[in-house]
Amino acid sequence: MATHTDSQFHVHHDSPEQIGRRERLGVRLLIVADGAFVFGMIFSYFYLKNLNSNNGWIPVKGHTFTAISGWWAIAPFVVVAIIHRLAVRNRSIFGLVSILAVLILAAGMYYQWHQMATMKFMHTNDAGDNVFEGAYASNWVLLAGANMFHYILTLFIALGLAIRHKRAHVNATLETWRQRTAGSWFTWTAISGIALALTTTFIR
Amino acid sequence: MTTLDHKTTTRPVPNPKKSLITKLNMGTGIILGVAFAFGTYYWLKSGQDMSRPNNVNKVLIVTMFMWSLGFMIGIGAFIGPFRWLIGKDLTPEEELYLAGDGQGIKRYFKYCTDHKVVGIQYLVGVMTLLGVGGTMAMMIRTNLAMPGSKLVTPTVYNSLVGLHGITMIIAMIIVATGPFGNYIMPIMIGARDMAFPRLNALSWWVLFTAIPVLCSAWFLGGIPTGWVAYAPLSVQAGPGMNAFLCTIIIFAVSTAVAGMNITATVVAMRAKGMSWNRVPIFVVGATISVALAIPAFPTFMLSMVQTGLDRTIGTGFYDANMGGSGWLYAHLFWIMGHPEVYVILIPGVAVLMEILPVFVRKPLFSYGAAIAGFAGIAGLSAFVWAHHMYMSGWLPMFNGPFMVTTEMISIPTGLIFLVMLGTLWQGRPWMKLPMLSVYAFLWNMLIGGITGIYLSDVPADNYLHGSMYVTAHFHYTLMGSALTGAVAGLAYWFPKMTGRMLNERAGYISFWLVQVGFQVLFLGMFVAGSEGQPRRVADYAHMYAHADLISTIGAYSVGTGFIVLLWAVVHSWRHGKIAPMNPWGAKTLEWTVPYPVPLTNFPDDAMPVVTSDFYGYGKAVK
Amino acid sequence: MQFKRGFKLALALGLTTVALTSCSTAKLNGFGYPKGVSSTSNTSLSLWQGAWITAGVVGVFTLILILWPVVFHRRKKGDTTTYGKQTRYNLPAEIAYTVIPFLIVAVLFYYTARDESRITKVDSVATAPHNIHVNAIQWSWQFTYDDAAAKPTVTGTPGQPPVLVVPLGEKVLYTINANDVDHGFWIPAFMIQMQALPGVTNHIEFAATKLGTFPGRCNILCGRDHSLMLFSVKVVTPAEYQSYISSLKAA
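YS: structure for the whole thing
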């Protein structure tokens, strides 16, 4: 494997600052796309809630999640965003924090999965098909699924940061840029998580 | 030896023997994709009661996504992220290998990160999609030639309409930003590659996996809904609908990645001295278009995710009995749907604006107005979606505001006309094929624009909504304007992309067949529509027989014209006249590089430095 | 010589275009549409015609601007050295091209907003002189007349489109529903339509003011036999309408 100097490590000879800046821009643009998706989900939630067509918002048997459970499901995102921010500023704790972030996210993912496994607003209809009781239930499962998707992506990133901190031999400047760029994503998951949790706070 | 010098021929071919990437290509992708799909299908099928539509949908949707995932794994798309995860980043040799260095024709079938390869892949992909969509259009018109629907059954007809629609929409979204945005645009701004070369390859190959999925709709009974896929019909539709919604979701991923990539490239990688007021207008247009697509398409994806959930696990987003609403679908769809038509239109117009100064040897008139026009259209387009819902009874009090925003779009569109007319004024037009397209565009866009005004008015829409008039109107804007722009771009950049000139005579024949046929085709539709023929009907009343027959005759002329163009492209690509480096005497940077364009576009010691904009033709030269 | 021939060709082409458009406009613009078919169609029609005249003026003006340089600013034969004037900006033109469309849009909006409120105005169900319920089904229509004590319902099939009988000159309130998928209730001759959506109740109201039979269609793709989802509107005198209602009651 070839060793290389800073000016040569990229195939097109760009400097680490250029690449880092560019990658941060790219991630932020993808956040815009994800943001449109999240906006669409929140729009769906409130649209159907206010429309309440055929009085079908609240599940037939009245089962809903408590407002606080939504906040628990997104809390790990907020915690990880904050501790990652601290770790980028204080490099000595980065290794510890990156491992902690993986654990916290895994716990959050488990909690989200647990919620989805225990939702009570489904029943089997006469034809034998699974049916969600009402629009609240439909929207809830979509929001939870999107949250789960965020967990999977974020866990991948956090895992990568932890492993790379241990063993990767990389350009230090670029790696710092990438850690900050990951921070952009972590901050976004926290913001979108808060938005989703706030949405599910309005139940009736 | 990792030094990159400019002489591609003398450089030793990088050969990272240990790496898996050397062994992967499209073939391994297909093998793994098919294996994943079959494995998933039979594994899931065994545990399900396949007599229930929900279970069938579940199995099919998962199977389709597994095909896409398997293909992407098989072609090596995830090697980069995986190597990042385990902390062993790709080495320069491997990156160079991925860029297809020294691999000849084989790199077109690999996960190749070179933007020029991706551009050619997009070009071939777009032409394939246009061919498929065009064939469906010809079948539709043949069936409508006479009342009585003699050619196909209503079910097949509805599938034809829907799949023609979605195939063309996908093709038109990428028709200019795909080939030219990838091949030409980075050279135009003096960059060596796109900002994210691996994601560039990803966007193409993800799109590629959507094509078999879309085609599978035919084998699953077609789609009954048209490309708008209105719920709840789409929820109740047969298994073909799964193919449709998977295609859209996969395509939305590709678009988000490609849009982000192009935007980042233009923002971050322009040559030294290329300030924002010196960027070529095509680059500005393409960037505004994809930047508009980034926030627009996720809502389409969301609407398809919700349709998919309704069809599989039993949610009720669009089921009125379960608290859902078809209005929700219409909102989500059109929040994407109206920006989307401008995502299609703007790059086409931008191509023509790039071409126009070259062929009149004048600067682009009022560059500022051009950007204001694009930005105005893009900005307003986010607030016009509900004009598709005037007739749905959705909050009529909002009809007024949406009428204002929609009518306001004619102002930035007027600016675009101003720019083009101002550039033409006192120009000395050089009547080459790309230049003819400029005139065709102006004529078509004039008709498309004027007829669109009526659809923005509630009282006129009250009458015309859902009629053939609408079909004719948006074909004038999307086909007559955007596709004309893309064809002009093909004729203009063909020498740079293939090293040969496009056969001129065939080009002229094709141009006249297409453009004249086009007028006949859609004039017939305007008449039929304003007399009350609905859209998307397999059969119609006898009173429309003349208008429809005229349309069909026009359609055959258009079809013939495109076959001639296809022949010209294929023939010229192989046997055309060898092109000089700058056949049109244009000033933009892509004409300063030789063909074949070197891997890094510009030599290390001669990166371009921009000192003025690219439209200063002045008095001298030539 | 070359120039003259080009000019003549352009002139001929232009004239043909004008002739073509004017003969097709007779149809296109609805100038050929019957006047006074319904209580709202005159409003629609005059707006439709007025807008086409404005659009025609704008269109011809733009067309002249497109063709003028082709004809008069052509490169002389063999002349490869002369360049056009290298104009980059022209502030008056730019301002004009922003302000004039803005004014046109403002005027257009005033008229459309005014007419829209006239056309879509609906009385309450209680005060409407006649109530007809339109239920769209895959792939036909059901009409229920409140005058006939809400039953029986007239139901069509794709092979046998139903007939909607309405009284001449009397306002009818249509209540439009669907149970299965989205449909569109469209009567082209009356220049009016309204969508029939599941879970949604929509209304339109107008009076037919001309005797005769007019075709009506579904205009939202609704599945296999969408193209056969037809009906016809039969406008009859109030007396005939009453006898039709009593025949329904008797059935």
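YS: worth flagging: The beta strands of chain C are 130-137, 140-145, 154-155, 163-167, 171-178, 183-187, 192-196, 202-207, 212-218, 230-236.
IM: good catch. Also The first strand of chain C starts at residue 130 and ends at 137.
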